[in-house]
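Hey, I was hoping to borrow your eyes for a little while. I've been staring at a protein lately and its backbone has me curious. You're getting the sequence in one-letter code plus the fold written as tokens. Would you mind checking whether the tokens look sensible for this chain? Here's the protein in full, and shout if anything looks odd to you:
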Amino acid sequence: MESQKGSAMNWKVLLVVAVVASSVLAFTAGYLLAGTNESPVEEEDTSAKAIIITDEWGTIVSMTVEDDYNRTIVLDGVPERIVSVAPTPTELLFAVGAGGQVVGVDDYSDYPVEAQSLTKVGSFTLNIEVIVGLEPDLVVCSDLVPKEQLDMIEAQGIQYFIFATRTMDDVYKDVRLAGLITGHVQEAESLAADLEVRVKAVTDLTLADGVSKPMVYIEYYPLWTYGPGSFGDNMIELAGGANIAHNASGEYPELTSEFIIALDPEMIIYTVGVMTTTNATEISSRSGWDQITAVEEGAIYSIDDNLMSRYGPRVVDGFEQLAALIHPELFA
């Protein structure tokens, strides 16, 4: 990172407000400016705040920012060495142009291709020794990384930043947030704006008055699906479907065959990835499933798991595919 200059510098303080809230003012130039003698600007309905301190040449010497868990992280400038311990933040960093700052990734970070050649630091069990050896300024992660492992990283004097995406709006927010903490604000804003345009082009059709909402069951592992509060649930809704597990007991519930048969989905979509253990033939042959409308009508489809479970920019590709599966009549 950039080291802090002497106290004689004429520092400027920037208060970044609503930097990750897509519903607030456009991010364009990046910041709302408060001079060093002014009180901080207060804005309602913000998702996060960041205070950026620059020297007289505009170099960032300090950054105080909130992550998706509302944790406050203080950085001595823009991180130059970042370790990502989950695929989603890896894709976010590369997407906003910060790939050159990433020095290590988890075992499952395989996109983009440049990430595959970086030092691997483990997956479900992180190799703390390797992470420390990479001398990172910051570790970025998703909220699926066990907290005890993150605590071990923090105990080594390394701060970690959590990305926790639950909705499509969160995708835009986290793209902008990734750009902020890596010094790629303009690239991130351009990308987020483009993603918003693409999603709106779909929802203008799928959420229009009079459009039907077929019952949809998405399976990412046999009988496991997306429940309320999950990103998958939000995707189904925006794509114009009704999630059969919308009222389940958790974000990622394991259902029973009896429950699925009773809800009678009109469409079954299974994800294809490293955990795939099924296919359309196997699903159709399950006991009692021949009475499900989706099975009777052959409405069983697959979708790339990476486009459903990694909540970086590529998830919009998955969303467009999902909408076309649920409502082919709208995208013919």
